[in-house]
Recover the amino acids of this structure.
């Protein structure tokens, strides 16, 4: 059974459709990259997958026992988030918030999960550092640890390497590929960086305010959609 199934889904703002004709599935172990020009509906789709926005048409369903509060989400980072006055450990721990239920405090298990995910990403040594004093790449990995604290099944990432230097971006891609291939974590990632993601992705969803391609990364490389996109250089 698919973790996510979109069936003829469309999303709108102010009565006008932003993205439509969404018809695809994400299965356990997939690494799906969502690509397209600015304003093509990529971030809107992510909001729909998180059930923060209801489809105007069609449906978006979660399956295989996945609940929306079990999705790890790494959003685009705002200036206010970059200046957050907390330790790296506290930021990672906040990913357990939805699992706390009615408990007023984090449990020992929550704290262990936060520390384990910082360790998993090689940044345990940053646990007591103030988040706002970290570099952009370090902050992004702390936010990834936060997302991992929320899930054992599915990560949704919206432009996770935006603003990062190429070596730092490559390291983050390497870690995401390891989480997917070695640990079997399903990844859905919005990205403008086609060159950086094609070797790691298993599937590509290309949007132009509607779905114009969905298939394997190998099929995408051979498609006219990819050739036109690269020729136009619209992904920079």
């Amino acid at each position: 059974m698919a973790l996510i199934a979109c069936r003829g889904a469309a999303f709108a703002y102010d009565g006008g459709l932003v993205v439509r004709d969404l018809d695809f599935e994400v299965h356990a172990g997939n690494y799906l990259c969502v690509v397209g020009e600015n304003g093509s509906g990529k971030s809107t789709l992510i909001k729909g997958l998180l059930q923060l926005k209801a489809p105007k048409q069609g449906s978006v369903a979660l399956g295989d026992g996945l609940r929306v509060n079990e999705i790890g989400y790494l959003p685009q980072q705002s200036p206010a988030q970059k200046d957050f006055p907390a330790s790296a450990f506290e930021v990672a721990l906040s990913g357990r918030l939805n699992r706390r239920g009615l408990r007023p405090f984090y449990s020992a298990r929550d704290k262990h999960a936060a520390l384990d995910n910082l360790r998993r990403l090689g940044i345990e040594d940053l646990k007591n550092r103030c988040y706002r004093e970290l570099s952009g790449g370090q902050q992004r990995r702390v936010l990834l640890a936060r997302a991992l604290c929320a899930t054992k099944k599915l990560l949704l990432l919206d432009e996770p390497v935006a603003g990062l230097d190429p070596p730092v971006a490559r390291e983050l891609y390497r870690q995401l590929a390891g989480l997917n291939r070695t640990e079997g974590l399903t990844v859905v990632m919005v990205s403008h960086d086609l060159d950086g993601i094609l070797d790691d992705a298993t599937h590509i969803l290309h949007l132009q305010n509607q779905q114009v391609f969905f298939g394997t990364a190998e099929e995408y490389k051979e498609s006219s959609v990819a050739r036109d996109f690269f020729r136009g250089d619209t992904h920079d």
